[in-house]
Amino acid sequence: MSKRITGELGETAIKEIVLETGFLYEQRGRLEAGTDGIVELRDPKSGAPLGRRLLTVRDEFVLS
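Request: output the structure for the sequence above.
Response:
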């Protein structure tokens, strides 16, 4: 499997986990250097975005 496909699978898994926890996941453009997405907090009661980033996501494929 190519590194690109493995990276896409990793990002999809991360996005699924983030959305299941009730946060927002904003995917970044492919030309962005190193950042795959941003996780943003939401109000737990209303679901409204809080405008606060929790973390920046970067998945990597590493061969050992």
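The first strand starts at residue 24 and ends at 27.
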